[in-house]
Amino acid sequence: MNRVTRLVIVGAIAMGLALILARIDFSASAVDSTPAVSVATSQFTPDDIELSSLVSVAPVDRAIRFFESRVEANPDSYIDLTHLATQHLRAAKDLGYSDSIDLAIDVARRALEVNPDYPVAAVAYANALATTHRFSEAVAAVANVPQSSKSWANAVAVIGDSHLALGDYEKAENFYRELASVSPGRASLSRQAHLEFLNGHSQRALNFAKLAAEDALASGVTPHQMAWHLAAIGEFYLAEGEAMTALDHFEKALELAPDHIFALAGTAHSQWMSGDLSSSVETYERALDQVPSDTGIMVELADVYRALGRADEADELVALAIDELSESLFEPQLVRRELAQLLADNDIELELAVRLAREEVAERKDVYAYDTLAWVSYRSGEYENARDAAEMAMSLKTRDAAIYHHAGLIYSALSETYAAISALEKVQEINSNFSISEAERARLLLKQLIN
Predict the structure, then answer these.
(1) Is 362 among the domain residues?
(2) Please, what are the averages of pLDDT over each run of 10 residues along the chain (451 residues)?
(3) Domain count for the chain
(4) Residue 388: other Cβ atoms inside 10 A
(5) Both 132 and 246 in a single domain?
(6) Residue at 41 is within a domain
(7) In terms of DSSP H, where are the helices of 96-240?
(8) What is the rounded distance in angstroms from the CA atom of residue 232 to the CA atom of residue 193?
(9) Distance CA 299, CA 293 (A)
(10) Which domain holds residue 103?
(11) Are residues 363 and 214 both part of a single domain?
């Protein structure tokens, strides 16, 4: 899974799933109610943050045990069940514990069985469903949350996130606009940053992400929440090839929350992009020790191994990732896209890769679904189908070098030289070092086409 895919798909899921709170007393609402930040140029830097200024919270494992004991004492306490579900979501989001998602779904469902009209439980359940890419179900789960409820803003956030993931960007934008009107602040600003990125406005995306971080710092957040904002900013810098600036943000995030999985992965990526492959390996291995089943980290580490001449270790990791994803096909919505990309990258089981990519586009029509279909179609020799998908992937002008790299290869295969040159020049303009395995190929093909 490439970095921008992780940024846009995995994390709003890293983008601020609205109910994930770290306060044990849950005294704050899930989506901020702080005053709107003026859309001006942000001056935020990682140096603005002092750990002492953040909200101290109990570790997630201790919070889970606390609410488990309360639920054991009173199994029908829908409020404690909802708090427990939220802490499981916190473990999944901050630490990458995938098993916690199923626990969150189960516990939130139990809360709703006790009190079907409790809107906070409905939002927790919807967030958990969205985390497993069951986006239509997530929207349905909060359909009856009343606008008069304090949970309305959270419901709007879940619905907007789900439409964004499904590729219905107009609906997502409408719900995010509603979120900004009822609950301005970091939750709204973070989502606006992602919309700007998808629409090709990388500097505006960065500005909104920094404004969100400023608001988070002013309103009082936990170290893990602040680390998420820093990691989000870092990912935007990575997309533009600004590895050292990205690394500053990721390292600050790890200073605040040493186990933050997105910050670990972002640090490792920034390290190889800046030429420090040995440190990158150490950081990826640390991340993989924390979350051994993270196939995205496996694949990224395999790329660095291969660049260091450690081909056997790379092959073992790729094989393990394929096995892990294949074994999860009973939940296809979670793994189709990543498995299709991985099969295509390694030129194996291409018929299966194409089928998975087509199924993904049938369900989710976002730019990354189309990019996946374009790539696997190209690798399968279906160049005209690949071109059609690539042009859908480029339709928003998202500044992701990998999308344009794929398009350049496809146009070149179709002997559409001018279009190929244009796409590959775009790769160089956005981020010439976008991939440890493909960047040199993009440069050489562009040189060949120009000459």
Answers:
(1) yes
(2) 43 39 32 48 90 83 93 96 94 81 95 96 96 96 94 96 97 96 94 97 97 94 94 98 98 95 97 97 96 95 97 97 95 95 96 98 98 98 98 98 98 98 98 96 97 86
(3) 2
(4) 16
(5) yes
(6) no
(7) 99-114, 119-131, 135-141, 152-166, 169-182, 186-198, 202-219, 223-239
(8) 9
(9) 11
(10) 3-34+50-291
(11) no
